[in-house]
Each structure stands twice: as C-alpha cells, then as structure tokens.
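Practice problem: predict the structure.
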Amino acid sequence: MVYCFSGTGNSQWVADKLQGLMDDEQDVFGMVFPVYGWGIPKVVNDYIAAHRQEIQATHYIYIVMTCGDDIGYADEILNKALGRDADAVFSVHMPNTYVCLPGFDVDKYEVATAKVQETLQRLPAIAESIKRREKKTEVVRGKCAWIKTYVLRPLFNRFLVTDKYFHTNKNCIQCKRCVRGCPMDNITTDQNGKIIWKHENCTGCLRCYHRCPCVAVQFGRFTKNKGQKIHDFD
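Answer:
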C-alpha cells in the first residue's frame, strides 16, 4: 500500500514514477509526501493518527519526502507520529513551491528541471532498496536542522499554516478551479460567486495559489509578484 499526499503535484509525480519501478510489494506500507516547514503536513499527521495501528503492524515501512532544499528533522517528527521508526526514509529534491515568506519563491525553470532530473536518476536506486527491504536513512537535513524543525517549525505552524490570509484579487474570473482542486475541501463560494476560504481544514499546500490560471489567489502581501509552479515534468 502506498499513501501519497501532494499539494502542487511534486510528490504525486515522485509516487507515480516510483510505483512504475516496483512490483506489487506485499506487507509493505509506503508514504510519499512533501516536507512543510521542516516537518510533516498536518494532513499527513492526521492520516497517521487515524491509521496508526494498521501502519505499525506492517512489516516494512518506507517514506519518501519531497523538498525544495532540505528536511531538517522531519523524519523524527514522522517517527514520533508513527509510534515506531520507519524502516527506510529518503528525501528527494523537487522544485520549490513555498512562496509565503520574504525571500521564498519558485525556482527558475533551469533549476527546477535540474532537481527533477536529479530525482529521476535516484528513484531506481530507491526502488531497489525498498525491494530488498533495506533499513536506511538517506536525507538532506541542511544547516541548522535542529533549529529549523524544533524552533522555526512550531512558529511556522502557528502563524503561517492558516487560510485567513488567502484572498482573490481583481484578476479572479470565478472559474472555481481553486474550489475544485482543494484537497481539503476548504474553499467554496458565497451567494455572489466570490471565492472564500472556510477556515476549517487548510493544510498549507498552496495548490489554490499555484493552480490559479489568473494568478488571482494571494496570501496576504507575501505572494505579490511571486511565481507559480506551472511546469509539468514527464
């Protein structure tokens, strides 16, 4: 069984490629998802909490986390949520999609393409490692990893994993692509067709922002003049 959560498509791409390299693995549980704020997304944590016993009972657990640069100690956060250590943990680079703080923007096309090619070359080795049921941790923690995960991450989750700053600007054509695409069913419209966020279940994936064809979805002032992840990779 493979669980995949993907906001902007990076992790779904990795999961699809990885599954194409493996057979139907028995008594194996895999997870593919993005790193958010040097930790795990709320939706992933909620899924683990709801299925912890059956996941723990699996003979072999592997995790593949996608990140723009590094993961800090996201694997430690994950293992605490699981209630046991995953047997194998990998991090792979994919194009940056986080744009909600100063200094954070999407990668240039050349950089994004290089990251995808790097991951594409690594995936066969990751698949073989899983097939052999190897126990290993191959992740990029980055500089100041402990501070990122255990100091900055709680602040990130408290103040920035929220939908209260989302709004649409004058470019909005009310196509409702953000409504249909929200993986948490957290976006709707009012009686006049205006896009509104429900303030119920946002996980901070930014799919609504990146998939808006008119760049009408904004996160406060943080996303002004920022780019979108608009490239799909084969």
